[in-house]
Design goal:
930 residues; cobalamin binding; 29 helices; 25 strands; RNR_2_N; globular; alpha/beta; disordered N terminus; disulfide bond; three-stranded antiparallel β-sheet; nucleotide binding; 39% helix; cobalamin; ten-stranded mixed β-sheet
């Protein structure tokens, strides 16, 4: 049977790379319509409007602005801002600048359709028109999106770079090492990410051919890191994204494990010496390895040695001779301790990865892209696309299997067309891309879909549902790939890999038959099994056009483009979100999925309104009226609210990955977030469980492990004009209104006072506050630096001004409102657990005064008197202001959960985690590669 398959595969497609001759000879496919109507432009079925896109930085200045942009009315302003700033091409302010989402989508779809015609992908004109219309519908309706390089480059350049993910090899010689540096730089320039396994480079304890000892891979990592640091702000829209991997048997494995944590400690020392602690500040810019994700690649043999407390021996790269011997548990402990301290290294499980390898006859899998979802041959590339799962939820809350399958077919066909028309940075990558044609179809909004379906993220039912959807997507994608192979021929490398690939397809199919039915509808349960039946049958007959078809990427920027509430496989961060408003203040948004979940769970509208009102006021759903205790897990999120106790345990994240991993060609981009009090033992357990449960890779992140600057949340209040409307008629004003005069309230000669010592970035000082009889502050003294110095004089004058303001009746909350969060040097860590980092001396002073002297009601008013607006018009109206201090505590908690995130390289806002990367909720930029 295997010989028949091999000869049949060779006959169907003779080792071709997508060249012009093969395209002409290819036979096209029939494309059915599902979403569209012949003769009707999908764009005309939408309501359009003109808007102005604007993104402001942390200083309030415009980072980007473009007026009169044509956008579908259904798109949010965030989606509008992201698309206009990231994906519109042409110099701003010139006639060549794109101004319409309609034209942006047309640019991409027109180009792909033309490539499809040239490649012989369509049987008839009707098939070409159907493909064009269906793809346009999916993109305009926010049901799907390609990875960012497609939007950047397709239709702009003759042969555009379209892939987001690359894996590069390196050999043990200087020419190859320097070539890798150049290749990475060019990929960063065009907005892509890359990963490499440096285990081929001999260790620092090994000899060179000409005498002396080698530098070792960690030494060269410093050079790679420096290049990435230089290029990260010179690319199109994103930071440099890269992955560095070293095998556990490499002689320098211990140095590799410790390299990032050692540099982290250096950064701490610089911070304590007064250097800027922000992500792009002097402290972190002065240390190495901040521009990469690091992972240790381990085999089952290593993990079993850890379990058995056996020894582990490293081996020479040149000749494989044994070198150093360690206790495996000691190395495993070192990995976990480093990850506990700085988040790196993660782990990749080599035996698991290669046991699911479709092309193992060609070569093994050694590395991944920066976010670990794309794992394939060295010197290969993958273009990504994602489906928005919430758009396949029917009116009655079920999953639309038929629509989803059709969307998978259209999107996979589009990605396949892209492969042969893209530009690649090296000849090796181009050859492997054409010969193996790997694709990365995935999805976003899983967390929102589960909640809207009334299924807890951390539950067997939720995991079964997620696994069934993932299974349907991958099975249908492979079935479509087999249909493409029938007409276009299988990928060139299929003939020699038919046996291992069909073996992997059978493993996928077997896993599909083992999904438990709890939480899964009969239609979805049957459809996902049928998809794998068809994939195997068609593959056995025709082979496959693509060696890989699915991954789960972070979906950062494209998630914003699709207006997704959750990214990739992630659950929602919190039920209450706060968004900074232009000009100050915070916008409070109640999760728009909550009403859908309450409806699905059977709550009547009146009870739902009560529950939502409680959530809005308390910032937690725990304790809400009418809500049944057994329904609380449905609303669990990644982070615990300040006034609640519930959140998804880190093991719940690993179990969700376990449920979906058997149905992915690649892996899952996801960082397992752990609380700040998580121990090294917790991380050891997480890594061990990930291996036991069949994950291909895992990264953990303990909140607060990096000492970067926390989020800068404005306390600028938003005036509530409704409060100004008096319900009682005012008394008549006198004929002559006397001019108001301030009266000074002097302090008694003998008064109580409080003195507080502080330190900001190593600069020490003392605050003394004199108080009135009622305990209110009336004067301020600041002692800092030596007597007679400029700083001392300025502080004396400033303290006098504040004292006079207090004595003449200026409310303390007004001063706190205006002067807290001002930013200038010196700034940095304080040692005060209530104010861990100060942006300036005045920032510290007034935040301390706020904590000491403002009662909770006034603190609430200072924190935020925010307008609360629903994200969608269909949502019920919210209350106009935050009325309780616990809500503000919850807001602080929400922000501090992301306190270690870097500032956005585009607009300066603090980013939030998205899978193994970061995304910016203000402008849509990402630090990843998708």
């Amino acid at each position: 049977m295997d010989k028949e398959l091999s000869s049949k595969s060779t006959a169907n497609g003779k080792e071709r790379r997508g060249g012009r001759k093969a395209r002409v000879a290819a036979t096209g496919l029939t494309v059915e319509r599902f979403f569209t109507t012949p003769g009707v432009d999908p764009a005309d079925e939408l309501a359009w409007e003109y808007r102005s896109a604007s993104i402001t930085g942390e200083d309030g200045k415009a980072v980007f602005e473009q007026k009169d942009i044509e956008v579908p009315k259904s798109w949010s302003m965030l989606a509008t801002n992201v698309v206009a700033s990231k994906y519109f091409r042409g110099t701003p302010g010139t006639p060549e600048r794109e101004t319409s989402v309609r034209k942006l989508v047309a640019r991409v779809v027109d180009t792909l359709t033309q490539w499809g015609v040239e490649g012989g992908y369509f049987t008839r004109d009707a098939d070409r028109e159907a493909f064009h219309a269906e793809l346009t519908h999916l993109l305009l309706r926010q049901k799907a999106s390609f990875n960012s390089p497609v939007w950047f480059n397709v239709g702009v350049e003759a042969q555009p770079q379209c892939s987001a993910c690359f894996i590069n090899s390196v050999e043990d010689n200087m020419d190859s090492i320097l070539t890798l540096a150049r290749t990475e730089g060019m990929l960063f320039k065009y907005g892509s990410g890359t990963g490499s396994n440096l285990s081929t480079i001999r260790g620092s304890k090994e000899l060179l051919a000409g005498g002396g000892t080698a530098s070792g891979p960690v030494s060269f990592m410093r050079g790679f890191d420096a290049f990435a640091g230089v290029i990260k702000s010179g690319g199109k829209t994103r930071r440099a994204a890269k992955m560095v991997i070293l095998n556990a048997e490499h002689p320098d494995i211990l140095e590799f494990i410790r390299c990032k944590s050692s540099e982290e400690k250096k950064a701490w020392a610089l911070i304590e010496a007064g250097y800027d602690p922000s992500f792009n500040g002097e402290a972190y810019s002065s240390v190495f390895f901040q521009n990469s994700n690091n992972s240790v690649r381990v085999t089952d043999a290593f993990m079993k040695a850890v379990v058995d407390d056996a020894t582990w021996t490293t081996r020479s790269v040149r000749d494989g001779q044994p070198l150093d011997t360690y206790q495996a548990r000691e190395l495993f402990r070192e990995i976990s301790e480093a990850a506990h301290l700085c988040g790196d290294p993660g782990m990749q499980f080599d035996t698991t990865v290669n046991s699911w390898h479709t092309c193992s006859t060609t070569a093994r899998i050694n590395a991944s892209n920066p976010c670990s979802e794309y794992m394939f041959l060295d010197d290969s590339a993958c273009n990504l696309a994602s489906l928005n799962l919430m758009h396949f939820r029917t009116i009655d809350g079920d999953f639309d299997v038929t629509a989803f399958r059709h969307a998978v077919d259209i999107l996979l066909m589009a990605q396949e067309i892209i492969v042969g028309n893209s530009r690649y940075p090296t000849e090796r990558i181009e050859k492997n891309s054409h010969d193996y044609r790997p694709l990365g179809l995935g999805y976003a909004n899983l967390g929102a879909l589960l909640m809207a379906s009334g299924l807890p993220y951390d539950s067997p039912a939720g995991r079964n549902y997620a696994g069934a959807i993932t299974s349907l997507m991958c099975g249908e994608a492979y079935a479509m790939s087999a249909r493409l192979a029938e007409k276009q021929g299988p990928f060139a490398g299929y003939a020699k890999n038919a046996e291992p690939m069909l073996g992997v397809i059978r493993k996928h199919r077997k896993a599909a038959y083992h999904i438990a039915p709890e939480g899964v509808s009969q239609g979805l349960f049957a459809a996902q099994k049928d998809a794998w039946d068809r994939a195997l049958a068609l593959g056995e007959e025709h082979g496959f056009r693509n060696s890989q078809v699915t991954v789960l990427a972070p979906t950062g920027t494209i998630g914003f483009m699709m207006d997704c509430d959750t990214t990739g496989i992630e659950p929602d961060i919190a039920l209450i979100k706060y968004k900074k408003l232009v000009g100050g203040g915070m916008l409070k948004i109640v999760n728009q999925t909550v009403p859908l979940a309450l409806e699905k769970l059977g709550y009547p509208q009146t009870q739902s309104q009560d529950i939502i009102s409680y959530l809005d006021k308390q910032d937690t759903i725990e304790g809400a009226p009418h809500l049944k205790p057994e329904h609380l897990p449905v609303f669990d999120c990644a982070f615990k609210p300040a006034q609640g106790e519930r959140s998804i345990h880190w093991m719940g994240h690993i179990q969700m990955m376990e449920a979906c991993q058997p149905f992915l060609s690649g892996a899952i981009s996801k960082t397992v977030n752990m609380p700040s009090d998580a121990t090294v033992e917790d991380i050891e357990k997480a890594y061990m469980e990930a291996w036991k449960r069949g994950l291909k890779a895992i990264a953990v992140y303990r909140d607060g492990c990096k000492r970067t600057q926390p989020l800068n949340t404005s306390k600028e209040t938003v005036k509530d004009t409704r409060a100004a409307k008096a319900t009682v008629a005012p008394e008549p004003a006198p004929a002559v209104q006397p001019e108001p005069r301030a009266v000074r309230r002097r302090l008694p000669d003998e008064r109580r006072s409080i003195t507080h010592k502080f330190s900001i970035g190593g600069h020490e000082g003392y605050l003394t506050v004199g108080m009135y009889e009622d305990g209110l502050p009336g004067e301020l003294f600041i002692v800092m630096a030596k007597e007679g110095s400029v700083v001392s004089g300025l502080m004396d004058s400033f303290a006098t001004s504040v004292s006079l303001a207090l004595q003449y009746g200026v409310p303390l909350k007004v001063l706190v409102d205006k002067l807290s969060h001002t930013r200038f040097e010196p700034s940095g860590f304080t040692g005060n657990p209530d104010i861990p980092i100060a942006k300036s001396i005045t920032d510290y002073i007034f935040r301390w005064l706020e904590l000491k002297f403002l009662p909770s009601e006034e603190e609430d008013a200072v924190l935020d008197r925010v307008d609360v607006q629903p994200k969608r018009e269909a949502l019920p109206a919210r209350t106009a202001s935050v009325q309780r201090s616990d809500a503000n505590t919850s807001k602080r908690s929400t922000w501090l959960n992301q306190a270690d995130a870097p500032p956005c390289h585009t607009c300066g806002a603090i980013m939030v985690r998205s899978g193994a990367c970061y995304k910016c909720s203000n402008c849509g930029a990402t630090s990843g590669c998708s």
